[in-house]
Design a protein that fits this description.
alpha+beta, Rossmann fold, five-stranded antiparallel sheet, disordered C terminus, metal ion binding, Rp_bS6_RimK/Lys_biosynth_LsyX, ATP-binding, transferase, nucleotide-binding
Length: 309
């Protein structure tokens, strides 16, 4: 019987199409499943987990492509489904623990700092008074600070501050502050898969804010050299968060002479990156899931040097 994989996603499109094609090339049946449709059901024998399309069985592996937003309870349950799958012995790529670390920007910053990965100075807390003191101290040193939503993506909600702290109500009462690095008009996105940096691009411009370089906001994707410094830093960032694969955003720094990690994306899109690399990224992701992640738990045919087996 062929392997069956669940692609967890709240929407289908270009990314899921590429993944399903790559799974078919490995003779693996891949089915898109919305985590919102899954449930914990202790009467559902034998596992207590109901995954649409898999009956009373569980998938052989899970690829997490997207988790829809929702209430705190809804997101907690969806992550709980991923936790439960892992507890049931199903390889989850990336698993819930790693996604939680990367989605929470404060935990990302903490882990990068703890493991010695270069990243801008960061402060996160609920005290508006402390956040205001940070702004004043940084301004006295002729530095600026950026405030970001603790949970967010695609450059949404970022604000560059001077000495005035905005109302924290619009940031859900949490001040996540990061020292602004005024280096260039671009940043890098490095894709790490299975502890290997496989592709890089420059993201230039975007969205009217020349310091926010997200493809979803109109940034231009350009080819770039995957230097040893970029590769090493991105790999270390991915490992610090325990991710199987990640899109790591880096920026050059005149102060450290090494790239700084801004963010680590545990559910990374790669459409922009695919446009500037010759690698088939979906194939690399699928091969890593099957040949490394899943093969470590069971006997799975590996890809040959010149094709699929």
């Amino acid at each position: 019987m062929s392997l069956r994989v669940a692609i967890m996603t709240d929407e289908t499109g270009w990314h899921t199409g590429r993944l399903k094609k790559a799974f078919r090339a490995r003779a693996v049946e891949a089915r898109c499943v919305d985590l919102a449709d899954c449930r914990i059901d202790t009467t559902w024998k034998p596992h207590g987990l109901a995954i649409p399309g898999f009956g009373h069985t569980l998938p052989d592996a899970v690829f997490v492509r997207g988790i829809a937003g929702g209430t705190f309870e809804q997101v907690t349950l969806r992550l709980g489904i991923l936790h439960a799958l892992r507890e049931s012995g199903v390889p989850v790529y990336n698993d819930a623990r790693a996604i939680e670390r990367s989605v929470d920007k404060s935990m990302t910053s903490f882990l990068l700092h703890r493991y010695g990965v270069p990243t801008p100075a960061t402060w996160a807390g609920e005290s508006a008074a402390h956040a205001q003191r940070v702004l004043m101290r940084e301004a006295a040193a002729h530095r600026q600070v950026v405030i970001k939503p603790l949970f967010g993506s695609q450059g949404k909600g970022l604000k560059k501050l001077d000495t005035h702290l905005p109302e924290l109500a619009s940031f859900n009462e949490v001040a996540y502050l990061q020292r602004f690095i005024d280096a260039t008009d671009f940043d890098w996105r490095v894709l790490v898969i299975g502890a290997k940096a496989v592709a890089v691009m420059k993201r230039v411009g975007g969205g009217g804010e020349d310091w926010i370089h997200n493809f979803a906001r109109g940034a231009r994707c350009e080819t770039a050299e995957l230097t040893p410094a970029l590769a090493e830093t991105a790999i270390r960032a991915t490992q610090a968060l325990g991710l199987d694969y990640a899109g790591v955003d880096l920026i050059p720094s005149d102060e450290t002479q090494r790239p700084l990690v801004l963010e680590v994306n545990g559910v990374a899109a790669w459409r922009g990156l695919q446009s500037v690399t010759t690698h088939d990224i979906a194939t690399l992701l699928v091969d890593d899931l099957l040949d490394r992640k899943l093969a470590s738990t069971r006997d799975v045919p590996a890809s040959s040097a010149n094709g699929r087996v």
